[in-house]
Amino acid sequence: MCLPIQLGFAACLLPALILVPPARGPILLVPIMPGSGSHLAADMIAQGARLVAPGPTRGSLVVDGDRDRIVAGLLRRGVVPMSAVLVDCGEKESRR
Question: What is the helix, strand, coil percentage profile of the chain, to 5?
């Protein structure tokens, strides 16, 4: 009887751990409302973030910086911050 409860808890906790942006490091910013991505890059630079690359979806952006400075107010603005660790955002160098 305890196993289903534990599995349910793990099923809820795992996505949360994957999606929570790190305290410091790469953060994927995904605009989910029309117009919520406008001025996103400029706003992130003003918050001390370093632009890394465009994100995997239209209007999304990968930045590197301090979560506490970056994510304040983003949800109200229609931008969802999440961990960018699983996002492949760079070109791989070929070694010959």
Answer: 35, 25, 40
